[in-house]
Write the structure tokens for this entry.
Amino acid sequence: MRSWLIGICLVATSLAAHAQSRMSSAELSYQYNLQNEFLMSHKLASQASEYKLFLHFSLNSGNVKISDFEIKYDLRSDYMDERDVNSSIQIDSTNVIDVAFREFVFEVPFSVENNETIMVVDVYNIQKDKHYYYDIPLKVGETAPASFLVYQAEKDIPLFQKYLNKGIPVRFKKVFGQESNYQISGMENNRAFPAPPFDEAERGAPLRISIDTLFGANENEVFTFHNQGFYKISASNNTEAVVPLLVMDNFYPYYEDYSELVKPLVFLSTNEEFTSLRADSDTRAAFELFVQNTISSNEKMAKDFIKYYYRRLRKSAWLFSSDREGWKTDRGMVYQIFGDPIQVFRNENTELWVYSSAKGGKMRFVFELTIEDGLRKYKLLRGKRYREDWMTAVTQWRAGRIIE
């Protein structure tokens, strides 16, 4: 096993007491819990050493109010770097640029020194005396963020979603005031289904099929995507820094037809079952027959399966969509079958998810960070050790038992 893999496990188990000062030992599972008392997302833009953070903070529980929270940030050289005393900077009402019902958007300008690679946001619930930590890498690989962002068409705030439904207008806008023209290139979203965690076979990359020709847009011009796909947007004066954008159909993360509804069943079906599902000309009948014969003939159990399994697909869309649907990513696949991880730890290179194992003890999934198409992606380090737990969980789903 690689030394850095051993390192992250040691960090997760032996340095938990230092979570307040070191991000590598901060427990981050709340970020994947969509029932958490608050939800956060962000967008980052840069120009030379000047940065701007846009932070979307949503109160997600009726038991909390914005005055319950104190939000601060500091900049560090890496995940092992401890916070300097008195280095934290307050984010407060002076940073607010938009307010909706229990939602707040903060704009935070800051400067970065050469050795600073990560921003750590500390959200402190004063009433509970509890800290939540939110890590924001300041570069994608070696590339600083672009100096522009995708904005909503009718509000002067960035698009925070991990995907855009086609037909919804947006704008491309320089964050630091200068104007530019923009180039937009797209590829078809033809990504394959992820292999199970125990399948270590190498798979070839899918064909990169371009969408039409190169599009163009002017500064602040309202632009509408009419085709699904994965797009890369760049300013004409700097084509290296790109803003990636996944464009999905009007219904995503819901489903318009049964031909799409059967695809996520790949995790629960045998090869023969899945081939039959995809080949049947009446996909609705095939889907209903699969649920009735494989999951349960009991109407309530069948409805519960559909409700909970496809609700988790929607959660994966909100959490993990990147250049593909959220459930097609490695983290989305694990999340789909096992649900919210008990613990999550992260450093510059890896992310570790911890679950209870059906065999007793803990089950650990390690995802390795890769950079591709201007995106940070996490690739699961697969191994045969996952087979038993995976097959046990799949069997439970197929028996109509909901894993929550």
Observations:
- The radius of gyration is 22 Å.
